Amino acid sequence: MFHVTDCFDAAYLLNAKMNRYLVDASAHANHVIVVGSGICGSTVAAMLAQSGLKVTVIDAVAAHKGHIAAALTPVISSDDNPRSRLSRLGARLADRYWRDLQAETGVRFGSACGALQLQRPDGSKRAQDLKAQAEVFAQPHWARWVERDQASELAAIELPRGGIWYPGGWLIQVPELIGLLQATPGVQMMFCEVNSIERAGQGWLVKDVKGNPLAQGDAVVLANAGDVTGLLKRSGFEQAVSACSRLAALHRLAGEITLLPADRLRGGPSCIVGGDGYVLPAIDGWCVSGGTYVRGAQRAECTEMGIRTNIDRAGQLLGLSPEIDRYQNLPGWAGWRAVLPGRLPAIGQIPSMPKLWVFTANASRGLTWSVLGAMLIRDALTGQKISIGELDQRMLSAIEP
Ligand SMILES: Cc1cc2nc3c(=O)[nH]c(=O)nc-3n(C[C@H](O)[C@H](O)[C@H](O)COP(=O)(O)OP(=O)(O)OC[C@H]3O[C@@H](n4cnc5c(N)ncnc54)[C@H](O)[C@@H]3O)c2cc1C
C-alpha cells in the first residue's frame, strides 16, 4: 500500500501542483470560515471543530430541508481507475466516520444497508455488462455480481434483474446528518448569503451583498457548490479561477427526488436499489425515488414531469407498476448539483491564495466525497501530514481544483 505520509519522495515534491497538499506548519489556522452549509461544508466544519479549531459556517438557506434521504453508492470500473479507487476510499472513510459519529452521539442518521446496482435491460441507454465488469474488477468483498434471485433476497423484494452488490452502501437521512454535524461544539452558524471575500492581513474577510463584513478568519473554505467560481469572480479573483486546472468549467445541474408511499412499492426495498436512478428503503412509510437531471434549468423545483419520471423509474427498478395517481401531489425535494467534467470533486487550495480552500463539484456523490474532502482540508489547516494513507499522486491530481 502506498503511504503518502511515509513517501514524500522526490517525484512527489517536484510536482509543484501538489504543493497545496504538502505539510506546511504555517498553514495552521485557528479560526476557519466555511461558506456553504450543505453536506460537504457541514462535514468540513464538524471535522475542523473536532480538531479544536474555531469554525464559522455561513449560509443563507438550509438547502437540504426536505431531502429526507440520499444514498452512498460506490462506483467501480473494470480497470479500477482513479475515480473508482477514490470512490472506494471515500466510501470507506465515510463509513468509519459515520459509524463513530452515531456511536459517540447516540443519534441515528443512517444505516449501512448496502446497495444494488441493477443491470439495465438490454438495449437501454448506457447499458454495460455489469457481470463482466464485476468479474474483471475482482474485489468481491467490495463489489460482486449477484443473480436475480440473490439480488431479490438482499433487497427483500422481488427484483426484475441481477446486478452488482455493494455491501458498503449507506442510506443517509440528510437533514439529520447535517443537523448533527452543525451541532458540533466549536461550530458557529451564521445565516446570510456571502457575496465576496477579501484579504485581511494574513487572513480573510467575508462580506455580504451590501459589502458589510460578516466574519474574519485566518482561513476560508468555499463549500458553496456551484457558486464557488461566481464568488471568486465577484471578489475580483478571476485570475485565481483561471489558474486552477479544472474549476473554470464548474456548472450547475438541477434535479428532484420524489417520495413515494412505500405501500405502493410492496413496502420498498431493504437496501438501495439503483440503475437508472435509485429507490431507497422506506423512511416513515415513504421511499425516495430519484433523482432527475435537468439541464439548463433556471430554478431547482419539483415538477409534474419530474414526479412522473421518478414514479416510472421506481416501477422499472422494482419491476412493478406503482399504481400511483400521476397527478397526485406527492412530496419531494429539488436541489442543485455542482458538476465538473469527469464527475470528480475539486478539493484543494487555490493556487497563490494562502489558506483559501475550495471543496466543490461533488455532483451526485456528495456523500461519498464529504469525509475524504473534509479530512484533506482538516489535515492541511491543522498543519498535519495527509492522514489518508491510501491516497496516491494520481488520485490527488484527479481532484485538484
Ligand atoms: C435530486 C438530487 C438527488 C441527489 N441524490 C444524492 C444521493 O443520493 N447521494 C449523494 O451522495 N448525493 C446526491 N445528490 C448530490 C448531493 O446533493 C451533492 O453532491 C451534495 O449536496 C454536495 O454537497 P456540497 O456541500 O458540496 O453542496 P450543497 O450540499 O449543495 O451545499 C452548498 C451550500 O452552499 C450554499 N451557498 C451557495 N452559495 C452561497 C453563498 N454565496 N453564500 C452562502 N452560502 C451559499 C447553498 O445554500 C448550500 O447550502 C443529489 C442531488 C440532487 C439535486
UniProtKB/TrEMBL annotation:
Indicate yes or no for the key word Flavoprotein. yes
Record-linked Pfam families: DAO
Give start-end of the signal peptide: none
InterPro entries, per the entry = FAD-dep_OxRdtase, FAD/NAD-bd_sf
Domain FAD dependent oxidoreductase residue range list: 31-378
Keyword entries, A-Z = Cytoplasm, FAD, Flavoprotein, Methyltransferase, Multifunctional enzyme, Oxidoreductase, S-adenosyl-L-methionine, Transferase, tRNA processing
Q: What is this protein called?
A: FAD-dependent oxidoreductase
